[in-house]
Design a protein that fits this description.
This protein is α/β, with parallel strands linked by helices and 290 residues long. Helices cover 42% and strands 20% of the residues. The protein has 11 helices and 12 strands. Strands 4-3-5-12-6 form a 5-stranded mixed beta sheet, with helices on both faces. A hairpin with an 8-residue loop joins strand 1 and strand 2. The protein is globular and about 65 Å long. It starts with a helix and ends in an 8-residue tail after the last helix. This is LysR family transcriptional regulator. Pfam families: HTH_1, LysR_substrate. Keywords: DNA-binding, Transcription, Transcription regulation.
Length: 290
Amino acid sequence: MNIQAIEAFLAVIRTGSLTEAARQLHLTQPTLSHRLQTLEAELGATLLIRGKGQRRIELTDAGRDFVPLAESWRRLWSESLRITSRPVFRVAATQTLSSSIMPEVYAGFARRGLPTALDVKTLHSQEAYGAVEQGELDAAFIANTMFSKRVSAIPVLEERMVLLCGGKSTLDGPVRPADLPAEKGVFLSWTHEFTHWYEYWFGLNRHVLEADNMSLVEPILASSDLWAIVPASAAVWASREGRLRCLELVQPPPDRVVYLLTLEPPSPYTSYLLEEFRAAAGRIPAPAFD
């Protein structure tokens, strides 16, 4: 039994899918399946029910019993690494933050020359919560908060929401939500508050496209007359090459708040990370509205 097999098993439990688990671990699905089969062979028990055409993986009784043992095994492995090697500071951020502000944050942290290696990941807010709660991450930057008895969520950035569109769009700002054609909207679920605001103005499922990845939305907007509402920092980053335009919104949605997730007590390196984040956030220019 090795750490790779344990990580494979826990990733499947976390995602409920072999395909998604393989994607998150950067493995092919056959490699992931082989690790699971090897683990089951070593234990002499079937851990997962994975039938043909079955969309979600289910645990056997043995699999349910093995989950807490696997989590303990992984914690012990992490602790042993801290004893025998350079400590690792593990950080995650959402995709939009990872492609805009976080590279500058990570670079600033690395330049400090601290006695730790920096391990960074890109996760959805819900995934980040689970990873921090399980001790798999030391810190994470997210936008959608959840209830947790163990995880602290500290607001670290509040930014306005703006409208983003391509050169083929005839929209002109400032623009009111009532003047936006819902059938040309690209919806991204930034926060729970944003989703409520969007449904109020445009209704349910009237948008032309829904996405969870800002880097996918950018080329779509650039080559069409579609529009999307995004945080100011994402708009500044997306419009840097001049293919997209930022328009001011009248009656905009609530500001997006970014939170830092940590366990108590936080890692001693968290304060340095937070300093770099606030410094980078302070350097974000205001959107240049058309």
